[in-house]
Write a structure and sequence with these properties.
111 residues; alpha+beta; 4-stranded antiparallel β-sheet; 2 helices
């Protein structure tokens, strides 16, 4: 199969799964993002690519909310920069253990 695509909304994000010679690729677009970001490519089956995209969005939503909360706490001087970094990294590591998936940091998907 070539040039096949599946697109659907999921938790406010737009998920796109496409097929080319290399296999299926999963992409997601943040509601405020301008571009799709590839989560991972070369899945043998569309279902695997869809599952990766759904897991990514499931993980990204709480990560984004936590990041916004920590930024607000830092901006209102309830956290200093070191505390902010340690809490954010700790949260991300916990999320990675719960929903393991290889991705770029969330900030890269919002551009």
């Amino acid at each position: 199969m070539t040039n096949d695509a599946i697109e659907f909304p999921y938790r406010g994000w737009l998920i796109r799964v496409t097929c080319d010679k290399g296999g299926w690729s999963a992409q997601a677009k943040h509601p405020r993002g301008k571009n799709f970001a590839t989560i991972q490519s070369s899945y043998d089956f569309a279902a695997d690519a869809i599952q990766a995209a759904v897991h990514f969005v499931t993980r990204a939503n709480p990560s984004h909310a936590m990041q916004q909360l920590l930024i607000e706490l830092r901006d209102h001087q309830h956290l200093n920069n070191d505390e902010y970094k340690h809490l954010y990294v700790s949260f991300e590591k916990g999320m990675q253990r719960l929903l393991p998936i290889k991705t770029k940091p969330l900030q890269e998907y919002e551009r």
